[in-house]
Amino acid sequence: MKISARNQLRGRIVEIVKGATTSHVRLDVNGSIITSAVTNEAVADLDLKVGQFAYAIIKASSVMIGVED
């Protein structure tokens, strides 16, 4: 797999929660959980399964930080 995004985090799928059209895929990356919303079709096409290794690929034009008052 070659892609241009540089933020690639490898982890293990720990949960897949399917909705009507979208699934939430939870990935454990060194103890931190990253959740991605992807279509049910993408889950099927990629044959995603709990326990499988996968990559969270993050492409964003900005990242914001917030704090409580």
TrEMBL record:
Pfam families attached to this UniProt entry: TOBE
Alphabetical UniProt keywords: Molybdenum
Keyword Translocase assigned: no
GO BP terms, alphabetized: molybdate ion transport
SUPFAM superfamilies in the record: MOP-like
Superkingdom field: Bacteria
Gene3D superfamilies tied to this protein: 2.40.50.100
Domain spans labelled Mop: 2-67
Protein name: Molybdopterin-binding protein
Lineage of the species this protein comes from: Bacteria, Pseudomonadati, Pseudomonadota, Alphaproteobacteria, Acetobacterales
